[in-house]
Amino acid sequence: MSIYAVNKICYRVVHEPELRQALSDAPEQALRAATPPLSEEELRALLAGDVGRLSKLGANHFLLHQLGRFRLLGLDLPTYAERIRAAYRPG
Amino acid sequence: MAEIVGGVGVPHTPHFPGIVDRGEPLAAELRRLYGAAARHLRDLAPDFLIFFTCDHYNIFFVESVPIFSIGVAPSAPGPSDYRELQAYTVPIASGLARHIQAEAVRGGFDVGMSQEFEFDHPVTVPLHFLTPRMDVPIVPVFVNGLIPPLPSAARCHALGARIRETLTGMRGSARVAAVASGSFSLEIGGPRISATSHTGVPDPDWADRVLDLMRAGKVATLVAEASEEQLTHAGNAAGELLTWIAMLGLVGHAPPAFIEAQREFGHAFGCWPAGGPGGTG
Lengths: 91, 281
Description:
Structural class of chain B: alpha/beta
Order of helices and strands of chain A: HHHHHHH
Helix content of chain B: 25-40%
Number of helices of chain B: 9
Shape of chain A: globular
Mean pLDDT of chain B: 96
Distance between the termini of chain B: 27 Å
Order of helices and strands of chain B: EHHEEEEHEHEHEEEHHHHEE
Largest sheet of chain A: none
Radius of gyration of chain B: 17 Å
Structural class of chain A: mainly alpha
Shape of chain B: globular
Strand content of chain B: 15-25%
Oligomer: heterodimer
Number of strands of chain B: 12
Distance between the termini of chain A: 30 Å
Largest interface: A-B, 22 and 21 residues
Largest sheet of chain B: 8 strands, mixed
């Protein structure tokens, strides 16, 4: 499945308060209900808040940061920033 | 004919209204800079604003990502993406918007038409500071500056010039000004953000170069240098510069009456008089 599924989740997070609530209450269930479906790798990375991995898979950074902005999947903006920067730190 | 009376370019950082409302340290500078642009627009006394903006993955993402589109609804609410900001209903000059879109297509520009949508913060934040009473209808022109592939700077400039041609060919005596909304170097959420924020300015030298070229009225040089490679290097939101380039295609190439950068943010505030059609700069 293309990374579009991840990008779409991040897009929907901005516009659907009910999705934000579902991602807080029961994240795996909410992510498994996504259409188009997420791959297992994408799902695991999202559940872990592993935005570095999602970035390497090709996720759109502008959309991805919305997970931090809305404090979802264990992220907030400082955590998001640290993880994205760490993923590209030399060495 | 409609008269092109000038234009402004401003940033749309979603945190700026709150900073001003709360009187934080940056508030005085923001009031001064947005104030300069608002005063310039007021002095131009426009009947309509042609508003060049980049949708931030809010209107256009799932169904379609048009390279250019013009909003033709009678009005649109917003912002859709920052509900904590003041909500507005922005009036749209719907008839003029439809005419401009049709003439763009007739002129060889494959510009889409958006009939029902909500604006996002790149439209409402500038208007919050420029025309907070929402008493000047706009024609929103969406330029895809964020989702690759981006249109070329030359194409954006030519679209602005085509809109100019349409306006000056119209009957009547409407006064029309242009607004551009966006940054010159900006990364949002990507690896080149700063250590202390979710944003960064990856290429401040490019932002300086853009400012120098605008100040000198060297718009053709700016268009030539604003390649997709350069814009990508300057950040994942640096394509917002394309709104300024389109605005200059409409307003003309006279040097700005005022331009000042906020270098730490990679953006600027600029005010243009009516300049006549583009020169060779």
